[in-house]
Structures are given as structure tokens and as C-alpha cells.
Amino acid sequence: MKYYITTPIFYPNSSPHIGTAYTTVAADALARYHRLLGDQVHFLTGTDENAQKIVRTAEANQTDPKIYVDGVVERFKDLWRALDISNDDFIRTTEERHQKVVQRIFTKLYEQGDIYKSEYSGWYCTPCETFWMENKLVEGKCPNPDCGREVELLKEESYFFRLSKYQDALLSFIKDHPEFIQPISRRNEMIRFIESGLEDLCVSRTTFQWGIKVPFDPKHVVYVWLDALINYISALGYPDGENYKRYWPADVHIMGKDIVRFHAIIWPIILMALDIPLPKVIYGHGWYLAKDGGKISKSRGNVQDSFALIQRYGSDAIRYFLLREMQVGTDGTYSEDNVVERLNSDLANDFGNFISRSLAMIVKYREGMIPCPGQDGELELELKALSAEVKKAVDKRLGACDPAGALEEIWRFVARCNKYVDETAPWALAKQEDQRERLNTVLYTFAECIRIMAILTAPFMPGLPAKICTLLGKDEKLIQWEEADRWGILESGVKVQKGEPLFPRIDISKLLME
Ligand code: ME8
Questions:
Q1: How does DSSP assign 129-146, residue by residue?
Q2: Ligand 1: which of 48, 299, 306 to mutate, most ligand atoms within 8 Å of CB?
Q3: For residue 287, how far is its CA from the centre of ligand 1 (angstroms)?
Q4: Could you tell me where the DSSP H helices lie in 326-463?
Q5: 91-116 pLDDT tens trace
């Protein structure tokens, strides 16, 4: 099966931060999971460069917009590398491959009468790159609850896109496809919004020149949202590219809740007007908030250097934190204390400790050789049943774009494995000559539990499989998703190593003194 997943394309008006990173890490976990399932995956991310705010920021930095974005785009690519993001493509909207598709689509929509020329008179919020009618403003400012900033009065000749014409078609599509907008709270929000009536959308600007020119009227540049959304097909080589034929429609567009409106309304209507199939799922997740409850964003000045964080805790730990902490349909709180707490409890204590403890026992009692197991007892049967249950639940959660839920399930298995160590007490078995076979069974089961943990966590923490496979004396072929609920895969006689702890405990008080 094919699986096409995208993140939003980010504005390179400032460097990415840990909040921005959430979406990309979540998309990466889903892409990696689908690769493990054997799907043909295409994972796209990129940057949205033709915005007015880019011009403003470049001016403030006394530089040319293109020079400015070229610099920031490198920071995005660096961060994605540091976080082990496995995207197959990275699109920049200043690239020719994108610009020519936007121009082609704009012309087609104009020629078929879905875009028409008129005059825009109203308000514009540059931080949100959004047009607002006067009656929507809140005390004369941007009505977006996360923004509330000054808006500017615009009165200019503009092209408009007939959103209103497609309102009923969109509403019936959404009602007929309950899975289209997820989670359900976002879907309800969108239905209410559309039912309140769609106005035609202003889709060109004349007061600045940075952007994609309307080919038949070059004093206009294409409105940044119309331009940006098209990236999802321009990157595939629409209309004739092989990738377009292979991967469209997208299986999931994942994004923050702030921009679901654009993806659930403008984007499907563009596609309907072009007679192109609609994406299967638009998934809007919550935000990472700082401890004071405000959204993490550059303009609020609460952004920490993501590279320093990754260096301090490691990419896997940061990825784990981001994916685990934000529950479906809600916001998550980010703070460094929370990162350390999760790292110490979930990764060092529960996960890492099971692996070190159990490998140490195989080394101590069997000189590092995975022994040949005897008959399963009740405890082993229980673990086996649990692994099947957990794998099924993880498949379900990931199918619903819920990495936090999937990790919660996996940690049920991790907790059970830790309990199994205490219940079987291998140190006591080792003292009894007649328990030799029982000890072999327990130690073998430990090794199998480690193998299963390595498979289940592979989509989330891609640095782990290689490390764990080395500890188990195997190569990465051991990581086979369909074997996460099969037992008896490891051969006895293979030599394991105790190795260094995968996640050393962090002492926060020492860290603060550094
Ligand atoms: O909106 N918590 O770009 P943008 C979680 N260019 N996610 C966050 C976040 C936070 N604190 N801060 C940012 C744009 N994000 C447009 C998109 S797509 C055709 C065009 C993530 O740079 C989240 O995914 O403002 C949010 O939707 C996105 O960054 C906004 O990125």
C-alpha cells in the first residue's frame, strides 16, 4: 500500500522551535511506522516562503527576502536532521517546480470562472497572513485568539476565489466522510464554521512584489495560502509526475489546530474546483504551551534553543517527550523539568532499566549466551497474550494518528516486563540447581521482551533499534513489525552484551548548577 503524509510547510521568518518540531516528529513517527508495515511511504515537509511577513522580517534585518529565507531554511533542515526526521522530500515555495504549478492552477481557475477580479476592501493580519471582515475584528484587532495583534486596512484591486460556490458540496463531503477531519472536536468546529457561511476569498495582493506572480496580470502576486496549500501536489509533480500518480491523494495532512481551517476549507475547495480527489484525513493536533499557559512561539519570547536541548538529552528522548506528552485533542505543556521527569521515569527507570537489568542477568548467569528456554509457565503465557493485545492497540492508535496513545500502550508492556522480573526473581532461581531450566526460560523471555520493545518503539525513537540490536548480538533485520507479537524469534546461543545504559538518569539539580 502507498502512504503519503505531509506536515505544514513552515514560515521561515524565524528559526524552528520545539513547538514547531512536534508536528514534524509526529509525522515522522507515522511515516516510520508505515515503512515498518511495508507500505510505500512518501513523507513531505518544507517551507512557506512567499509570505508578506517574510518581507517584513527581511526588511527588519536589512536584507533581501531570498537571502534571508535561504539562511533560515538551513536551520529547519539542520533541526530535522538533528531530530532524525526521515522526510523523502523538502519543498520550498520559492522553487520553480512549485511556482509553475501554482501559476498553472491560478490560470485554470480563472479561465473556468472560479477566480474573478474585483476589489478587496477590508483588514489584513500579517502575522496570521489572513484577511478579516470588519465585523469579525475584536476591538479592532485580529480575532484569532492566539494573535490579537494589529490589523491593517487594505483597499486594493484583487482576484477572488469562489469559495461560496462550493460551500454545499464541501459540507456534504464532510458529512459523508466522518474520518476526513480529525479529531472529532475539529470536525465539529469546521462544520459550524462552514454552516455560518463562506465568503469568497481574496487570492492576490498588489502592495508588494515578493511572491508568485499571477501570470496574466503580473502586478498581482498570489495570496500566500493559495500558493502554500498547492505544495502538497506541486511537490509530487502535479499533474503528470510519477509521484503524483503514485501518491495522491494524501493519506494524512497533519498540522496544528491553528491552521485546520485553511486545510479543511480552502484546500478541499481548490481540489474540488480542479476535479482532483480530496485527501483522506486532515488531522489537527493541539499546541505545546509554555508553563505560563501561552503558546510556545518566537513572538512570545519563550523559545528555547532546540539544538541545545537535543544535545543535552538526545534526539530520542526529546522525540519521546514530544510524542508522549500531548494527548489527542488537547494541548501539551512543555518545560525542561517535564522533559527530565519523563526521561527519568519512563525512559531511564522503566524502559532502560529493564533492558540493563535483564541483560546483566543473562551475562551473569549464562555468560551472556541467550539460553534455550524450557516450557512456558503462566507468567510467560500472560506476557505473550499481553504483547498481542498491545500490538493490536498500537496499530489502532497509530491508525488514528495518536502517538501518545500508542506509547501509553507500549508502556503497559514495559511495566509488565518489569513486574515479570520481580515475579520470577531470577537471582533466587540461580541459587537452586533444580531450577536451571526455569531460569533459562526466564532469561530467554527477557531477551524476547527486549526484542519486542525495540520493535514497538522503533517508529518513535529511531536511534534505539541499532543500539538494542547490538546489545542482542543481532543486526537491524531483527526489527520486523509483524514479529512484535510473535515469540521464539531469537536463537539461543547468541551472545548479548550488557552495554552502557540507554538512558542515563538525569540529576536536575546538578544540571541547573552547570
Ligand atoms: O501556519 N505547538 O506556518 P507556521 C504545536 N505556513 N505545534 C506548533 C507550535 C506549538 N507551540 N508552534 C507551531 C503556517 N506549531 C503556514 C502553513 S501549510 C500549507 C502552510 C506547528 O510556520 C503546527 O503544526 O506558522 C502549526 O500548525 C504550524 O507549526 C504553524 O507553522
A1: TEEE-GGG-BTTB---TT
A2: 48
A3: 9
A4: 336-342, 353-366, 378-399, 403-424, 426-429, 436-457
A5: 999 999 999 999 999 999 999 999 99
Amino acid type, 293: G
The pTM for the full model equals 0.96
Task: ipTM value, please give it.
Answer: 0.99
Q: How confident is the model at residue 301 (pLDDT cuts 50, 70, 90)?
A: low
- CA–centroid distance, 331 to ligand 1, in Å, is 14
As a whole number of angstroms, the distance between CA 110 and CA 104 comes to: 10
Answer whether 8's CB lies under 8 Å from 129's CB.
Answer: no
Q: How far is the CA of 48 from the CAs of 75, 212, 350, 415, in angstroms?
A: 14, 12, 41, 43
As a whole number of angstroms, the distance between CA 402 and CA 408 comes to 10
Q: How buried is 195 (Cβ within 10 angstroms: 0-12 exposed, 13-18 middle, 19+ buried)?
A: exposed
Mutation probe of ligand 1 site: the residue of 13, 15, 22, 94 with most atoms within 8 A of C-beta: 22
| Closest ligand 1 atom, residue 51 Cα | 6
State residue 412 phi and psi, 5-degree precision: -65, -40
Distance of CA 9 from the midpoint of ligand 1 (Å): 8
Distance CA 247, CA 499 (A): 42
Residue with cell 493519506: 251
Give the annotated binding-site residues for Zn(2+).
Answer: 125, 128, 142, 147
**How far apart are alpha carbons 481 and 335 in whole angstroms?**
33
**Maximum distance among all Cα pairs of the chain, rounded to whole angstroms:** 91
